Amino acid sequence: xxxxxxxxxNGPSSAGKTTLSQAVARRLPTPWLLMPVDLFHQIRTxxxxxxxxxxxxxxxxxxxxxxxxxxxxxxGSGMDVLADHVLNEPWRLxxxxxxxxxxxxxxxxVTCSPKELRRRERLRGDRDxxxxxxxxxxxxxxxxxxxxxxxxxxxxxxxxxxxDLIRNPPPQRAFDRLRDVRARx
Length: 185
Hints:
The chain is 50% helix and 16% strand. It is an alpha/beta fold.
């Protein structure tokens, strides 16, 4: 069975990653799995558990690690996957790079103007104020990607660019280059 592809949208909270992946999915001719990292936080039980901050940190870490393995499992079973994540901690990218060896992964950076990020964050109401701005400074530190899209003015132009990337991927992928850089370091 052939492996599926993973298109990983990376950007700060409220940048429009999930909206973009949904817009792309509506225009794809074949079935894909939509797997936002927030889905794993939504399906984790006991958000009211009486845990210390350190224990919650461990739960969040394990949740994200489970998400990474689910992406790899889905692609390994032959499904194409549109995923969105916040790669604001180096271990997240390192874990994904290690797990996805041999898989076809396209890395897309999703940006948005700081003003629009603040507006969206306020409208959502489920994030601490300033979370998106803080994440925006961290999520692209690794540098390399296959495509950068800006969702400040909505998903139309980024959707077209992402569909073009899926249809015409580059011969060498950012994940492979990042893996090579880390192997030399």
